[in-house]
C-alpha cells in the first residue's frame, strides 16, 4: 500500500502535523528551546569546541535529513515521480531499462524531494521567530494533538466505510 501519491498524498492534515512535529523534534528555530536557554554562548554546546562542536551541528543536520527522508517516503510517494501530466518513465524509457539506471533515477527523485524539505526547514529557521516553552506546549497539546486525533478518526472511519 502506498502512503503518498501526490503532493501531500491523500492525507494533507497528517502531512502538516508530521511536518510541524518533525521540525520540533529536530529543534529547528521556532522550537529550539535547548539553544535558547543561554543563547549568548551557544547554549548546551558551551563546553565544546573544535571537532566536538562540529559533530553537534553535523548530528543536527543529519537528524534534519532523516526527518526529510521520512516526509518524502511517507507522504510524497518516495521514489515515484509524483508530478502529474509529466510522463517521466516514458521520457527516459525507464520501464524498458530495469536495473542500475532506473534505480539511480529513483534515488535521485527521492533525494530531490528530501532536499526540498531540507530547504523548507532551513528557510523556516530564517523567517520564523522563536517560540517560548508555554507556546510550544500549547501548540503541541491544545492544537496538534486534537487535530491529529481527529485526522486519525477521520481516516479510520473513511477506511471502514470503504470496506
UniProtKB/TrEMBL annotation:
Membrane topology: Multi-pass membrane protein
UniProt key word DNA damage: no
Keyword Zinc-finger attributed: no
Keywords on record: Membrane, NAD, Transmembrane, Transmembrane helix
Entry's Gene Ontology BP terms: aerobic respiration
Family classification: Belongs to the complex I subunit 1 family.
UniProt protein name: NADH-plastoquinone oxidoreductase subunit 1
Amino acid at each position: 500500500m502506498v502512503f503518498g501519491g501526490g503532493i501531500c498524498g491523500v492525507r494533507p492534515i497528517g502531512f502538516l502535523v508530521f511536518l510541524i512535529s518533525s521540525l520540533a523534534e529536530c529543534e529547528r528555530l521556532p522550537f529550539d528551546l535547548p539553544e535558547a536557554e543561554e543563547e549568548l554562548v551557544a547554549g548546551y554546546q558551551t563546553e565544546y569546541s573544535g571537532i566536538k562542536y562540529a559533530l553537534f551541528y553535523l548530528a543536527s543536520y543529519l537528524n534534519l535529513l532523516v526527518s526529510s527522508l521520512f516526509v518524502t517516503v511517507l507522504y510524497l510517494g518516495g521514489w515515484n515521480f509524483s508530478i502529474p501530466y509529466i510522463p517521466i518513465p516514458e521520457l527516459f524509457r525507464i520501464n524498458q531499462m530495469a536495473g542500475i539506471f532506473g534505480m539511480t533515477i529513483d534515488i535521485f527523485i527521492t533525494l530531490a524531494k528530501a532536499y526540498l524539505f531540507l530547504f523548507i526547514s532551513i528557510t523556516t529557521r530564517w523567517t520564523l521567530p522563536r517560540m517560548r516553552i508555554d507556546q510550544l506546549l500549547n501548540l503541541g497539546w491544545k492544537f496538534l494533538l486534537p487535530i491529529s486525533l481527529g485526522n486519525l478518526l477521520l481516516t479510520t472511519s473513511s477506511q471502514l466505510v470503504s470496506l
